[in-house]
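Example 301, ligand heme C.
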Amino acid sequence: MRTRMMRWLLRLTVGLVAIIALTAIAVYGISELRLRKTYQVEVAELFIPTDAASIERGRILAGPAAHCAGCHMPNLGGQVMVDDLPFLVAAPNLTSGAGGVGATYSNGDLLRAIRHGVRPDGSTIQLMPAQNYNQLSDQDVAAIIAYIRSMPPVDNQPGETELRPLGRLLMVLGQFGLPAESIDHTVTSSAAVPFGRTVAYGQYLAVIGNCASCHGANYSGAPLIIPGEPPSANLTPGGGLSDWSEADFVTAMRAGVRPDGSAIDPAMPWELTGQLSDDELGALYLYFKTLPALEYNSPAE
Ligand code: HEC
Ligand code: HEC
């Protein structure tokens, strides 16, 4: 009796270990195939301006609007952003200093990285929202490159981004993807959305501001994958914003305080968004008002 039980237990253990090992091999294999895929992307020749107004436009885009500086640092010298169970995220140095890509990348190489999430050798860039930057207009991406070129060189080598076993599992389970996988690489030019306090410009700012990366594709809010961060809020009229005035929204983004006096967690980059102009914040507010009212964390269609 005892030996039969032991044998049964042993078989069960061997079976479980085999299942775990096979799952681990499958997760590694599938993620490795996706990570190693290369993309040949031809980019159009883009005029990069050098005038002060364009560089200032680039500064607004790289900071408050598109958050490059939030990850790559205000001096664009790069940093290790996250070193946690799922991944090590190192935002590279974009300047022309030692360890920076600015010294060797052509303007076309920068354009390909920003709008396509692809390096000059065809390899893919992880965990940077290039699928959103793909929507940047030609003028705006040129202004961002002009701004990168205007920055003083910084000597810094933040290291290599690395997807760890948990990160690979989350990727295989569809929690996040590689930006280059969801981009139409044949589109090489984007017209500008006219600047103004309009729904259309608000939508453009929401896309390039990566609001959906945290608030979900339909902006109804979602748990974040970085451990310890609060879930993002529902920005549709079905959420807390429904009875905020435009002034409430502007105050929330500028001071990080909701109308009820509670503080907004810094996991929400309100300090960057709050630097946008009244017209830009007004455009975002108008855009979120036009969305269908959804419940928190509604599934994307
Ligand atoms: C959420 C953080 C984040 C944001 C926002 C972000 N980046 Fe990145 N970026 C990264 C990470 C991380 C990498 C490196 C990923 C890797 O090694 O696979 C990267 C890579 C790059 C590269 C390629 C460098 C190389 O080594 O080939 C360029 C160029 C770049 N980013 C520019 C920008 C610009 C311009 C913006 C704003 C329009 C921006 N990034 C916004 C995180 C970010
Ligand atoms: C890096 C992730 C991230 C990004 C990008 C992001 N948010 Fe958030 N946001 C959050 C989190 C997390 C919260 C909830 C904070 C809390 O619970 O205090 C939040 C809260 C908010 C709130 C407060 C809503 C409420 O009901 O309390 C507003 C408004 C908001 N975000 C707007 C935006 C806009 C507009 C953008 C794009 C320009 C954006 N967010 C981009 C993570 C993000």
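Summary: Strands lie at 79-83, 87-91, 162-163.
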